[in-house]
Amino acid sequence: MVFSREKIKSVQEALLDAKLIAVIGHKSPDGDAVGSCLALANYLSLNHPTVEVCMPDAHPHFFNWLTGADEIMNLNDHPEKTMEVIKEADVIFCLDFNALNRLGDKMEHLVRKSQAFKVMIDHHLFPSDEFHISFSDTEACATAQMVYDFIIAMGHKKYLHRSIGEAIYCGIMTDSGSFRYPAVKAHTHEVIAEILKLGVSHERIHESVFDTNTLSRLKLRGYATNEKMEILPQFATAIIALSESELDKFNYVHGDTDGLVNVGLSINGINKSVLFKEVDGIIRISFRSKGAHNPINELAAIHFNGGGHANAAGGRWEGKLEDAIEKLKNVLPEFC
Ligand code: 5GP
Ligand code: MN
């Protein structure tokens, strides 16, 4: 039982006297991080005067339509305000990550130092023990789905309203590949059915997130597929690598390569796809694979300072783009 009565009671007690509550997500916040944090914050703020959402860095612009998105603080852009909230918070909810090192050095340090009661709600494998209370459901397709379950476990179904529902929908939709990954279960659709009853427009959410291309974004994706994709048939693997100068040429903004790694995976006969992207001098890597017996997170953890889910992981490389690609090619045989 993920949301046991005992744990829920501890959270209720911690919330009782809380004056300031912080809800935080991981570095490079995605739709599930933003959606789950805003859903929880919008719910908590019904009963608590001050609830703030903080992220280590900015979220992509196509989540700006979510209620409360314009009030999210991020440590990069608003260092003083964000530091103060984390320092002063009585309770910190940690959403969509299961170890403090997913926050990046600066934010990790702040949260570690904080005296707040820390509650984790997350669906990644191997949760750490850095939290006072951990709600871990590694079978959930999204943290946002867990936020719904949390609100129900708190006995507060009556508090659900449309903007909470929109944020939950957004988190589930983005983390489940629009309801197609194996982690989508009957329960996922039950949660969505309840959310639609709140007046949520699924059509508007899909449009707001997926139909916001700029011409340069589309051209970048075309260039990546047309000129930069390398297929390694012997390893059933597709690779795309984009340097900082290539990204600049297409006026890259945060979020422009989201989902691009899945293009490689959609090729017949390919079961692993890797996207390398050089941003701010660091190589960010996205890994995807297909099949229960073809995990990619171990490769990400052992060789690229990362981790994640069995079939969707991330990592980083400090060094040259070419060296990162070469490293991948050298270690791939061990994982095929
Ligand atoms: P993405 O490729 O979308 O950035 O990340 C895919 C998945 O891997 C996400 O679930 C994300 O939470 C996880 N992930 C990304 N980067 C890291 C990392 O550096 N460490 C760990 N443990 N997980 C990561
Ligand atoms: Mn997630």
Structure notes:
The protein has helices at 5-16, 31-44, 79-88, 105-113, 143-153, 162-175, 186-196, 202-210, 215-227, 244-249, 261-265, 297-303, 321-331, and strands at residues 20-24, 50-55, 73-74, 91-95, 117-122, 133-136, 229-232, 237-242, 272-279, 282-289, 307-308, 312-317. With 336 residues, it is α/β, with parallel strands linked by helices. It folds into two domains: 5-209, inorganic pyrophosphatase (n-terminal core) (Alpha-Beta Complex); 216-335, Diaminopimelate Epimerase, Chain A, domain 1. It has a six-stranded parallel β-sheet with strand order 3-2-1-4-5-6, with helices on both faces. Strands 7-8-9-10-12-11 form a six-stranded mixed β-sheet. A hairpin with a 3-residue loop joins strand 11 (307-308) and strand 12 (312-317). Helix 2 (31-44) packs parallel to helix 5 (143-153) and helix 6 (162-175) packs across helix 8 (202-210). The model has no long low-confidence stretch (mean pLDDT 97).
Give the end-to-end Cα distance, rounded to a whole number of Å.
Answer: 35 Å
**Nearest-integer average pLDDT:** 97
Rg, rounded, reads 20 Å
What is the count of DSSP helices, taking H or I runs of 4+ residues? 13
Strand-pairing-aware structural class: alpha/beta
SSE sequence, one letter per element: HEHEEHEHEEHHHHHEEHHEEHEEH
What proportion of the residues is helical, as a percent range?
25-40%
